[in-house]
Specification:
CATH superfamily: Oxidoreductase, molybdopterin-binding domain
Distance between the termini: 44 Å
CATH architecture: Alpha-Beta Complex
Radius of gyration: 20 Å
Number of strands: 15
Shape: globular
Helix content: 10-25%
Mean pLDDT: 84
Length: about 375
């Protein structure tokens, strides 16, 4: 049966206005990012993760988008720089033909990690509704913008306060690790959620190979920044690129923290963070960076992308907590893809038994 995508009533409209609180605070936001009055005079406004609202006008993939790209009659995407790129033909197989570890999929599922109260989210809506601002601020507009993005070869580096620094080809690393599939809940800060089968290996295994030193307390995760291949970077140049995230070392060593290289039994697609991302299922989704190229082991709490951009809305920890509302919406409920079924948000996204001992409950 063909799949017909009906927008749920909580779809984020591309034309939604910037909230007044963010607009009024734009000077301090831009000043913190080093942009000053020039950005203000150009009318630039920050739009972080916004609450899903009703939309009948949200841009479909391949239509004109408000972030600067357009679709030509021939089916190619025209970037703000004027170059033309043919969009991928199928979002479900949108990975390079020589993707790292291609022959390792599907991997065996570890049944210790499951979500018994939910079905898996259907693959197509999960693969075509993505936050990946390096390409587009339109969720459904991400995958068509990835045509120029090249993920092969890919090197992953672990550096900093370690006794055994690592710089290794991702394909080689994957063959050293034992890949497995885990089914996790995924919760966006915007209050939409899905249930996903990820393939990868524990982040702790990689960090142990690097052997963190005793003074190591945190890790900083660096995403790649390729403006020529990722058109959203120049379109949204006011953001503090490249994307960076941070974790306490004990969080990173938790059994749930996962280096992800695949999804739905195949290599990770470009719109979902190919070729490698990090998943932390007890935290809001933006805490798990995509297209990771370096992990830096450090001694002090690092700055992070969203906390730098909008510090009043996004904290360092960003644990899923129904009792801590976002400044602009409640987090008590979430809406499941693809139809927006409402369900109660679980503390730590349902993983309190595994991670609750890491926190006092006051972290934000």
């Amino acid at each position: 049966m063909a799949f017909f995508h009906r927008r749920p009533d909580w779809h984020l409209p591309e034309s939604s206005a910037t909230p007044e609180s963010v607009y009024m605070n734009r000077r301090s936001i831009l000043r913190a990012m080093g942009l000053g009055g020039l950005a203000l005079s150009g009318g630039i406004l920050l739009q972080g993760c916004s609450q899903p609202t009703d939309s009948n006008s949200n841009n479909e993939p391949g239509t004109n988008t408000s972030d600067g790209g357009s679709q030509t009659d021939a089916g190619t995407t025209t970037t703000p720089e004027g170059s033309s790129v043919t969009p991928p033909s199928d979002p479900l197989t949108n990975y390079d033909k020589d993707a790292p570890g291609l022959d390792l999929y599907p991997s065996k599922r570890n049944t210790n990690y499951k979500v018994p109260e939910r079905d898996l989210t259907p693959e197509k809506p999960a693969q075509t509704y993505n936050n990946f601002y390096e390409f587009s601020t339109s969720k459904e507009g991400v995958w068509p913008e990835t045509g120029a993005y090249d993920t092969t070869p890919w090197t992953l580096e672990v550096t900093g306060l370690v006794d055994n620094p690592i710089k290794i080809d991702l394909d080689k690393l994957m063959r050293q690790m034992s890949l497995e599939e885990r089914v996790y809940r995924f919760r966006c800060v915007e209050a939409w959620a899905m249930t996903v089968p990820w393939t990868g290996f524990p982040l702790a295994q990689l960090l142990k190979l690097a052997s963190p030193q005793s003074k190591a307390k945190y890790i900083r995760l660096h995403s790649t920044s390729r403006p020529a291949q990722m058109p959203g970077i120049e379109r949204a140049s006011w953001y503090p690129w490249p994307y960076q995230e941070g974790l306490r070392l004990d969080e990173a060593m938790n059994e749930l923290a996962m280096v992800v290289t695949g999804v739905f039994g195949k290599p990770l697609t470009k719109q979902m963070g190919a070729p490698v991302r990090v998943i932390l299922p007890w935290k809001y989704g933006y805490k798990g960076p995509k297209a990771v190229e370096k992990i830096e082991v450090i001694g002090e709490q690092p700055k992070t992308f969203w906390n730098t951009a909008v510090p009043d809305e996004y904290g360092f920890y960003s644990n899923v907590n129904p009792d801590k509302p976002h400044p602009r919406w409640s987090q008590a409920e979430e809406r499941l893809l693809p139809d927006g079924t409402k369900t109660k948000t679980l503390l730590y996204n349902g993983y309190a038994d595994q991670v609750g001992s890491l926190y006092t409950g006051d972290e934000y």
